[in-house]
Amino acid sequence: xxxxxxxxxxxxxxxxxxxxxxxxxxxxxxxxxxxxxxxxxxxxxxxxxxxxxxxxxxxxxxxxxxxxxxxxxxxxxxxxxxxxxxxxxxxxxxxxxxxxxxxxxxxxxxxxxxxxxxxxxxxxxxxxxxxxxxxxxxxxxxxxxxxxxxxxxxxxxxxxxxxxxxxxxxxxxxxxxxxxxxxxxxxxxxxxxxxxxxxxxxxxxxxxxxxxxxxxxxxxxxxxxxxxxxxxxxxxxxxxxxxxxxxxxxxxxxxxxxxxxxxxxxxxxxxxxxxxxxxxxxxxxxxxxxxxxxxxxxxxxxxxxxxxxxxxxxxxxxxxxxxxxxxxxxxxxxxxxxxxxxxxxxxxxxxxxxxxxxxxxxxxxxxxx
Length: 369
Description:
metal ion binding; metal-binding; 24% strand; four-stranded mixed beta sheet; hydrolase activity; Creatine Amidinohydrolase, Chain A, domain 1; Creatin/AminoP/Spt16_N
């Protein structure tokens, strides 16, 4: 972690001409310093860097910064007004300071600007760009999170096997998955686990309800674990009992598109190109209007971060980045299917980190009406 502060300042200076960088995003502060509290201000300058925290975090910040190897002073300021006063003192002599306008409210920006004479320059995405390529330690945490998710889903499959003979709800499946993930080593879920059955399966971000899983349903399960701040992300779609032929065909189509998308992941290929691989397959099959979201996104300290796998992201992927590939088809009156894996970009190709079975997910056996 040592050297990240200087890299961030150098990048902000090279791209925006600033001599200091104000960081307020806790994910970015964690990546730069190792500090895992809930609130702080980080000012990175050429002479030194300072992390301003309230009294709850003074000792924690000092310990975590020391362990990370980052070079930053910790200053305690117990109220917001005192923190802004301290920031103003630290900015003395600074002519231009970069900040990320997506991470700070207009009110806070006006409060900071009112107390300082330096010029503030929007330097959006500076730290996020640096976070794109993961270290071996970061990848290892994501692998642990993915493994916990794989193990949890394998055990929860037995619940779905019983869906034809027992009343099992979306919430039942969610609760069991999140319990099992913790049991297998995750600190918790990356996000509220999505379990969407029947008519709910056409809603990509459906929140689990008491809806009972029935024969003929598609059950979309989107689940991720978190280990030491780093996320995993995976989606599987199960078909329950006798299903309509069109729903079975949609599952086969999405599975094919997803496999082809995963095969396209490698250094130098843009997110837009991978999106096009999946989208063209689905469009040619007549379901283009039913593919209603991007194909994927980066994963790391945030569940959604750079790089993006969508039509407008033309930057090439780099070795060490981790992305999802998750095409989906959502046809009202038939059902929704999404299949997603977490993919590490390697030196020449890619490695799939989520290993749960994708094929033959019709339970208890593949049958169509």
